[in-house]
Every structure is written in structure tokens, then in C-alpha cells.
Amino acid sequence: MAQKISLTGRPTSSIQDYGKYLAFDMEEKGSPNAPKGIPFQSNAITYTIVLSLKQFNKLNITQEEFSQRRFLVQGEPCLDIPFEQCTGEIGVICMQIQEIEDKGKEKKQTKQIPKKGSRAKKQEESKPLEESKQEQEKKPLLVPKGTKDWMSLDDIKVPETFLQFTPGIAKQKAVEESIEKNGTVDKPIMINPETHELVDSYSRYYVAKQKKLDRVPVHY
Fold first, then answer.
1. Phi, psi angles (nearest 5°) of residue 95
2. At a CB cut-off of 8 Å and minimum separation 6, what does 165 contact?
3. Contact, 204 vs 185, CB < 8 A?
């Protein structure tokens, strides 16, 4: 099984363009306290992330905006990145990258919002439901506990035994509520890491397919 690494934070360098791929640095701070009995401390490590041009374009942001955003990067460590391009201590090949919510920034913006009068409140209440739905879709996806990777539904192979039945209404409703609230299913879908064949969680796969999600969290 391939090695996996997950990083969260802001880029600590400008993004470097190498034609078909890009690279940038990201720093992860160590834990302030080691487990009892271990005489060492975990220090901050700088990683050089390499991602494809296609992955960057999917983020739909400019290179200037890139350094101001926070990201979740999931990838695999690599020792073959040229030395002059790997300015960090460890090189990482990016398999998935997504922008995540900056909680500190959101709180700051909330404090600056002035109080609204009755007329403004009425105007907000009269906004169409479609607009509020669009705002929900802009929210960053929740990363369910146990997620090992993100995968396109089209890449998951479903055995015929699963396709022969339809999940119960109660199970479907629970998954639908999670998708509406968090933008994705509540738990990772279980797959075989070698064959990408569905092992369990067919209900989540079924509803995700109905909702036409681009990709879903998976666990091996």
C-alpha cells in the first residue's frame, strides 16, 4: 500500500511554475508535547508540494490569491524531486488538494459586519431559495474521520451483488442530510485499495451517485 501524508495550512512560499506542474512550500508545526516517556519534541517541518497544472486549475483561484488561502493536501512522500526544486525538507506528490475554511478570517469578518435595520432584514428574507443554496455549495467540504483519500465515483467499481438491491429510505435520508449540511457523505466509503472495488458503504455510494457528487472520501 502506498504511503500517505496529509497536510493542512497556508503556503509558505510563492508558487513555482514548471510548465506541466507547479510547486510550493507548506509548513506543518509539531505537537507541543510528546507522549510521556519520549525525551524528544516534534519540530516544524517544511514540505515541498508538487501538483499538476490540472489540479491547480480546479481550485479556480489565481497564483496571487493562492498564498492567502488555506488548503488540505493529501499526497505521497517522494525522494525524486530535483534538489533545486525541492526547497523544503520533504517532497510530496499531491494526489488531492482542496481549499478549506479559514475560521480565524471568518470570525474577523463577522465582527466587522454592522447591524442591519428592519428594511435590510426584510430584503434578506425575500432572497430566493436558490441563492441560499448556492451559498451552501460554496462551503468547504467536511473531511469525515477516517478518510484516507478522495476518489471519483466513476473510479469505484461496484460488484453486481450490491447493484441488485436499493438501500432503505432511512439510510438514504441520513446520507442526504449529511450531503446537504457538509457537502459530502458522513463517513468514508470502504473500497479495496488495489482494485478500487466497493467493499462496504453502498448506501453512501448510492446516494452520492444520485446527488451527482464529483468525488467522495474513501477508506481502505
1. -100, -35
2. none
3. yes
Coil, strand or helix at 14:
coil
202-210 vs 169-182: helix crossing angle, rounded to 10: 60
**Secondary structure (3-state) at 83:** coil
pLDDT by 10s per residue, the chain, length 220: 568 888 988 899 989 999 889 999 999 887 777 788 888 888 889 999 999 999 999 998 888 888 889 999 999 999 889 988 999 999 999 999 999 876 555 455 555 555 555 555 656 665 655 555 555 455 556 788 888 888 898 899 998 888 888 888 888 898 898 888 888 888 899 999 889 999 998 999 999 999 888 889 998 8
Vertex 34: Cα angle to 32 and 36 (nearest 5): 135
Cα 211 to the center of its chain, rounded Å: 18
